[in-house]
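Thread: quick sanity check before group meeting

JM: Hey all, I'm pulling together slides for Thursday and realized we never actually wrote out the predicted structure for the chain we discussed last week. Dropping the sequence here so it's in one place. If anyone has concerns about the input, flag it before I start.
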Amino acid sequence: MIRFPAPLRPGDRIGVTSPSAGVDGPGADRIDFCVGWLREAGYDVVVGEMMDGSGITSGPVAARAAEMTAMLCDPSIRCVVPPWGGETAVDLVDLLDWEALAAAEPTWLVGFSDVSTLLVPLTTRLGWATLHGDNLADTPYAPPDGLLGWLDVLAGPGPHRQRDSGVVAGWWRFAEDPHATSWKVVGDGGWSLHGADSLDVTGRLVGGCVETMVNLAGTPYGDVAAFGREYAADGLVVYLEASGDDAATICRHLHGLRLAGWFDHARAVLVGRTSAPDHPQMTQREAVVDALGRLGLPIVWDMEIGHVPPHLPLVNGALATVTVDGGVREIVQHLV
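JM (edit): ok, ran it. Output follows.
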């Protein structure tokens, strides 16, 4: 059974720790601003020791795993949000204290990119709902019309209704404006559908960044095939987004996920908008179709998931209904 942490409300304590990349330079100014922003919004924020930005990670792997475990097991902390992703969170996955986590009440973990390396195993191994959306550095950005901020999604069970925002945005450079609260709008975009004329499908959400998910596939920490079997009656809605690998590499990654059974119980696949490069002989869309087209699943393109903001927060484990039909393009999540 999916275990949803208690709703998050002002006054609750939020923990900040870096399981992957740490914080330094202009980025440190941004994180200080974001911590202050959360405190002004009424949250009690505690910042851990694993925040050093001088290396590729914030500290030794054992220390990072211990601090993440401690925050997730601390009953006074209701939510943990890293500053951002990074490169190698996969190194601490097997060093988390899974027995202590299994015995603890679930705590929200929030983020995307390399943070999804931790989100998925918490959901598939423990049944904890986790949230794929803004990292701490993005939290002050106001969501555009149609989308919700992750704090709004975690405030209650829903239904949480979000729709195609039509917005393509970018980040302000930290040195340019460390206090930005509005996305840099760079264009227009919209969801589109492949493999069906219309879509109205319900299933349990699971997914994340392709480049990190492929490293978990076939391991005890990314056994989405087993998760799908457990929730076969509900079915799955699998969502994925490419960070920066070229199309041929993404194609290989997706084939790997397919062979690991990630889509065995899927009813639809949601694909995030990407700025990752094409291959000279293959586009990013062609990569998805090459790997997943044979499954006959409907695919929704260009959703606000991942490395091209703004962000549409999705809760791993939530029961979600996705509708793309005529002028209706929306997803409704139930945290029950």
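AS: nice. The domain at 13-157 is CATH 3.40.50.10740 (Rossmann fold). The mean pLDDT is 97.
JM: adding both to the slides.
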